[in-house]
Amino acid sequence: MNTFKEYIASQLNSKSPQMDDLIENCNTRQILKDEFLLRQGEQSRYIFFVEQGLLKQYSVDEKGKEHILMFAPEKWFVADRESLYFKRPSLYFIKALEDSRVVLLEESFINKIAEVDHSFLELNNRLLNNHILHLQNRINSLLSDSAEERYLSFVQTYPDILLRVPQAMVASYLGITPESLSRVRKDLAERNFHK
Amino acid sequence: MNTFKEYIASQLNSKSPQMDDLIENCNTRQILKDEFLLRQGEQSRYIFFVEQGLLKQYSVDEKGKEHILMFAPEKWFVADRESLYFKRPSLYFIKALEDSRVVLLEESFINKIAEVDHSFLELNNRLLNNHILHLQNRINSLLSDSAEERYLSFVQTYPDILLRVPQAMVASYLGITPESLSRVRKDLAERNFHK
User: 20 to 30 A Cα–Cα from A23, which one of A168, B1, B113, B195?
Assistant: First the structure.
C-alpha cells in the first residue's frame, strides 16, 4: 500500500508533527471498479491521491465517444482544477478502472497544511509545476508526434499501465484509432525481433 | 501600455508598499519582431509577462515543422516551466511576433514577493491553476474537437489574434492543415451569410 503519508514523507526533507496529524486525518475512500468519483456537470470538491488502484479522467463528446485526459495509478494525483478551484461544473468524469483506495483532499486542506508547515507550500508548488510540464509536453506530442512516438512516450509515462487497461483506452489516450495502435505495436515488435 | 504593476493591482484586493517596490524594480525588456527570448536547448531563466506586443511559444520537430504551443498577447504570461523550475534544457522556443515589451520574472522573485505579501501567493496559485485548466482543455479539444470547434474555441481564447498572425500559424496552433482552416472559415462565413 502506498499511503499518502509515506508519499509526503518521501517528498519532503523534514516535516512537523502537526503536519503528520493533519495528513493522518485525511479522508480516504475505498471504491469499486467502475465507480465514479466525479461526473461531467458536477462541481468537484477534491483532489484525489491514489493509494491503491487506478483511475481515469475523461470526457465524453456529443457522439458518446470517450477521450482520456489522464490515467492515475498509485502515487498519482488527479483533479479537475477548473471545477475545484474556479467552482465551475466539471467537463470531465473521474472513474475507477480497478478497485481503488483514494485520499480525498480539499483545497482548504492545502492551505491548512501550508500554514502549519511552509515546506508543504514548496511541495505543492512543485506538484503544480510538474503537472503543467506534463500537460505542456502532452500538447506538444499531440501536435507533433507520430503515432509511434506517442505510444513510446506513453510507455515511458505509464510503464505498468499497458497490462492494466484495454488497448482501446490506450488508443483513446493517444488520440489514435485502435487499428493504428495495433499497427504501431506490430511494427515495434517486428523491429525488435529482427534486431 | 499594460504595465505589470497595473495588472497585479487589478488582480489583488490590496497590496503593500513593499510589493509595489519589488514590482517596480522588475526587469523589462524591449524586443524586436523575430527576436528570441528562449531557444530550444537553452535553460530558461524567466517567466515572461507581456506588457505590449505578441509572443509565441513553439517547438520544431526533426522535419523542421513548427508546432505552436501558445500565443501570448498583452497581459499574458509565458514560460517554459519544465526548464525554469526543473532546470532542464528547454524543448521550446519563445519568440516575438511583433515588437514587444516584456517583464522578465525570475522564479526567486515569486518567492521574494510572496514573503513580503501573502496575497501574492494566492494570486500565483490562481495563475498556476488557471494555466492548468487551459492546458487541460486544450488537450481535450485536440483529442475530441472537430477542426471547426477548435477554431471557434481559438477565437474565444484569443479574440484579437486572428488579425495579427498569419493563417498558417493559426493552423499550426490548431493542429490542422492550412487547407482545412480555409475550409472551416469558408463554411462558417457561408453559414453566417445564409442566416
Answer: B113
